[in-house]
Amino acid sequence: MYFHALIPFKPVNPKTRLSCILNQEEREAFARAMLEDVIAAVQKSGCSATLLCTHSFKHENALVAVRTEPLNDAINWALGQFHCPALIIMGDIPLVTAGDIQRLIRTEKDMSIVPGRGGGTNIIFLKKPRCFRADYYGASFLDHMRIAEECGFSVEVIDSFRMSTDIDEKEDLVEILIHGKGRRSREYLENSGFSIALDEKGRVGVQRDPHEEAL
Amino acid sequence: MYFHALIPFKPVNPKTRLSCILNQEEREAFARAMLEDVIAAVQKSGCSATLLCTHSFKHENALVAVRTEPLNDAINWALGQFHCPALIIMGDIPLVTAGDIQRLIRTEKDMSIVPGRGGGTNIIFLKKPRCFRADYYGASFLDHMRIAEECGFSVEVIDSFRMSTDIDEKEDLVEILIHGKGRRSREYLENSGFSIALDEKGRVGVQRDPHEEAL
Questions:
Q1: What ipTM describes this predicted complex?
Q2: In chain B, at which residue ranges do the beta strands (DSSP E only) sit?
Q3: Which of A19, A23, B35, B175 is deepest in the core (most CB within 10 A)?
Q4: For chain A, which domains are there?
Q5: Might you name a Gene Ontology BP term for this protein (chains A, B)?
Q6: pLDDT digits (tens, 9 = 90+) for B45-99
Q7: Exposure of B101 in the CB half-sphere (CA atoms within 13 A)
Q8: What's the sign of the alpha-carbon dihedral B195, B175, A37, A169?
């Protein structure tokens, strides 16, 4: 089965909730490293990758569409172009593997979906993308389940820690350092001086070697 | 295959990180509701449940051992008693299902493990429990992987959002309200006036109807 993976990506000033520990240049490099991890998994699973970018961007192994409208409008524009099944996958879930994506595309339902933490949606696979519309922001998982019902789609919810782990906050970096063996994003963090640290209550967080800071 | 599920449980003043929204009596009732969800999944999967309690506690459908030593010592004492495979499962992962537990106990490896968020360990299944020792607190997932290696165990890491979601903080309640259909813990939260709410940035959180507060 041939299909496209649609990956929204913000190349300029992304991941602002990480500003407390990464400056803009670093956040841009880190977001690209996570994107590489996602693209690698997508391509290994047999999909072609199309990046929906807010700004001009080049990538050797992916098509790029620059769209300046809000995220939902950009995705819905793209879905309207597709005559084959489509995967909408976020660029900030670097723990995803090709095998994980296979779990979605092998669904017997019309649609499969992976919730993100906190009510979000991290991946949607659609056999008939033109019938669907995306509604990200807020409790998008519930919104997407409702929209699927309105479309008359049968839905499989995929249970996965790796795919549900989107990286937004400092605490999320722990997951990459612990579970991200072999990932470009982990390499980036390690080369930038990040490591696991325990606070006085034994809770796990990250620390940064001050010699590696460019802030 | 016959085996025991070992569930550590603190009946008195549990879940103190929820003190900002639940008083002690409420936290005790909520912890019991989550425990009921876990016990229901455990029993439906064909296991018997043994609670390792810090204080005196009674339960109709589970054996209770009151152990006043620290958590790791209590678990390691219990593992030493077992001559059959054992599951160590936390009482604060109410999204777990019987099918999820089956994924662990059907492993072909010597051990299967489910990481929790933030470096923790939420479930361990051990075919030879007497050889193992638990080391919770801190980055316990990495510690348990190391201990398994020292024991010469082959290990399967199970990828699951539901099982990796332990409920510690106010933000975690979102997961129960969104994904916890049919759970006792969700019923408790709803009856206590909790519902999903969006903040001004569109992020999902919980709110509580002030009429339902007993604080």
A1: 0.92
A2: 4-9, 48-53, 63-66, 86-89, 111-115, 121-126, 155-157, 194-198, 204-208
A3: B35
A4: 4-164 (3.90.550.10), 170-212 (no CATH)
A5: F420-0 metabolic process
A6: 998 999 999 999 999 999 999 999 999 999 999 999 888 899 999 999 999 999 9
A7: 28
A8: positive
